[in-house]
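New to this. Help decode the following:
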Amino acid sequence: MPTQVHLFDFTRSELETFVRELGEPRYRADQIWEWLYLHLVDSFDQMTNLSLELRDQLSEIAVIHTIEPIAETDSQETPARKTLFQLEDGDGIEAVLMHYHSRDPDYSSKTAGEPLGTDASQDRARHTACISTQVGCAMGCVFCATGQMGLLRQMSAGEVIEQVVYLARELQYEGKRLTNLVFMGMGEPLANWPATSQAIETLNDADGFNMGARRMTVSTVGLPPGIRKLAQAGIQVRLAVSLHAPNDELRNQLVPINAQHPLSEVMDACREHLGSTSRRLTFEYVMIDHVNDFPKHAKELASLIEGLLCHVNLIPLNPTAGSDMRPSSYGRCVAFRGILQQHGIPTTLRGRRGTDVQAGCGQLRTRVEEGLVGRTIAAES
């Protein structure tokens, strides 16, 4: 039997071509697109405005799902759920669904979702999906579980999109909707630009999923060619750059790709992006105890980014089994934040979300492979 096509891999124009090749009118592509991205159906039987003959034909030559949830963990400390998906070739990738409410210390009303449902308690809620773009990662960040496993392969656009649709469907069952999306899971999004850019375009489509570009954030470890490509594409998504160190000597140790793309090059690309988009930059900085959290580091960071339209997120490290690094204490984080604020740099100290479910990239996959996660979706079903 020939290999079935994956519908989530299609751009909208490719779906139209596919439908025409089946001898169907173009509007059938619009109908299928809406079923996939507006109604979030998970079977062809649910596409009730298609003829029974077409639904049968689609079930023979196409598939909706190519990824399968096999394990998940729910945080008891903060509202977060991590899901491990198995891809068609058996590889595993992760996605995290995080919930924010107005009482959360790291809640920002500027990125809050529109009122949801009829429950007033949900009116100010944000539901954010953090998704993966690669199986593993080639960047090699020493404190990251994904970086420790290396790059196994690129993901397709459909595999990236399916994570979002799955999590949105889970929220839909609860009468909620996905409000924000961050490309911050396993992998480096700008090192898989074709899949990342297609996923953004598809999910932004107003006739389908309709996720506003400004509600999407692409996180990069700092790949100047990718940052420039994102700027040139004219996509109004947010850009988050993971610095983690204010000088090349320390960053070379923590983020090995810095040896190839030093901070000066990264900052030049950031300035170009800011000049092209006028969108505020976010700089992510993982706080590692007695490694990058000294006052001198805060002062260096302030000097590096002062004058830019930017915001800094300080994120206490999620410890991993492959590293003896530990998160900075609350006191050291507060002192670091204070120095940045003294220099007029907007800074947020993020709450540690999902640490009890090891929400850091790659950690659930590692725990499942080591047999340390007892509850799997397959076992429950």
